[in-house]
Amino acid sequence: MTFHAAVFIATSLDGYIARPDGSIDWLTERGEQAGDTGYDEFMASIDTVVMGRNTFEKVLTFGFWPYEGKHVEVLSTTLDPAIDERIIVHRTLDGLVETLADRGARRIYADGGVVIQTFLRAGLLNELTITTAPVLIGSGLPLFGALDNDVTLVHNATRTLKAGFVQSDYTVIR
Asked: What is the domain count for the chain?
C-alpha cells in the first residue's frame, strides 16, 4: 500500500457520529465553540478524500463544496457514477485501492462511519484523530462497529479544546 490513510472526525461523548437520521446538528450547533481543532492544517496535508454515499449526500447539503483541489472518491454500491463530476464512484474496496495506488495517492482522508469501519477491518488506516463533543445524544450512527480482530492503537496525544471538547490522536498498529 502506497498511501497513508487518516481519520479526522468528531463524536458525541457516547460514541456517535450522527443521529439515527444522519443529522449532525448536535455538532454543528456547538462545533465552533471548540476553537481551532487542527482541521484546516489536516486538510492541507490531504490529497484525496474517501467517503461513503451517506457522507457524500450529507456534504451536498452544506451549500458549498469543501474539497476543492482534492480528489474525492465515493465508495458505494448504489450511487449513480455520473451523479457529480467532482467525484469518482467505486463499487468495491479493491477497485478503490487500485485507483488510489495507480494515481499515486499519498494522504487519504477516510470519512464517514462505514468507510472508517471498512478501512479499519481491511487494515488500511494509519491514524485516528477523534474530537469528542461534550454531549450525549443517546442513539445514532456509531463511529466504530464490529471487528474481526482487535485493533491496537498507540495514543500519541490528547488535548483539551475550548467548551469541553477533547481531541485524541492515535496511530493504528498493524
From this structure: 1
